[in-house]
Amino acid sequence: MAHPDGPATSSLPRHPVNARHQRHVLTLAAIFAVFVAVSGWQPWYRHDWLLENALVLLAIPVLVAIYRRLPFSRLSWTLVFAFLCLHELGAHYTYAKVPYDEWSQFLAGVSLNELLGWERNNFDRVIHFMYGCLLAYPVREIFLSLASAKGFWGYFLPLDLVLSTSALFELIEWGAAEVFGGELGAAYLGTQGDAWDAHKDMALAGLGALLTLIATALINWRCHRDFAREWADSLTVKRQDA
Q1: Long-range contacts of 160-166 (CB under 8 A, 24+ apart)
Q2: Half-sphere exposure (Cβ direction) of 191: Cα atoms closer than 13 Å
Q3: pTM of the full structure
């Protein structure tokens, strides 16, 4: 695997050539296919499940292209896999009705909502946080490979993309709710009566991404001698001779 802070050059592989890497990705893909099948077995609201999985269908060609063209690490594939599985869980129950509190009471005898002082089903909020937390690192690898992002830009651009795609998703949710209306629109939107739901979702996605990127920066700062120089160089104006 290419160095996480190394330059994206033509020497980087255009697709995974390591057999262990290939097995890892194919295993995750097979497990996710099973997860989708289980999620689709008698979901609480079939039409919402179909609507939620429309985005997964759109993501599949993108993920295939990444697999074929980019040197994506096994860590990144695992993070993407984890997020998609959480999404399928929300799609099965609808995000506003995932019974995590009942599960916590059954397994630990404790109400998670009471413990954290939550007054609503916050599974959707958790998933928006995890969107940023889990996907910021894979997005960073894309910027390192395709845009040769270095230093500051290798951390700012992933954060920026997570925030912008979060805003785009909120617009998609709003559009879908307007088009479908009724019970399906309400189930897909999942605001649970909170007028600031979209703003909080975007803020949590940004917070998750920020925490992941700060942790990544701290690890690179500790492990790589050139971290400070590369960071400073990335903020220097590049002058070109006329």
Answers
A1: 162/131, 162/132, 162/135, 162/136, 162/205, 162/206, 162/208, 162/209, 163/202, 163/205, 163/206, 163/209, 166/128, 166/131, 166/132, 166/201, 166/202, 166/205, 166/206
A2: 15
A3: 0.84
Tokens encoding 72? 């994506």
What is the percent of the chain where pLDDT is above 90? 57
Q: What are phi and psi of 139, to 5 degrees?
A: -65, -40
Closest CA to 210 of 151, 164, 159, 171: 159
The predicted structure's pLDDT at residue 11? 39
Tell me the backbone φ, ψ of residue 17, rounded to 5 degrees: -115, -10
Stronger pLDDT, 225 or 33, i.e. the higher one: 33
206 phi and psi angles, rounded to 5 deg:
-65, -40
Distance separating alpha carbons of residues 7 and 220, to the nearest angstrom:
14
What residue type is assigned to position 239 of the chain?
Answer: R
Tokens 């920020």 belong to 210
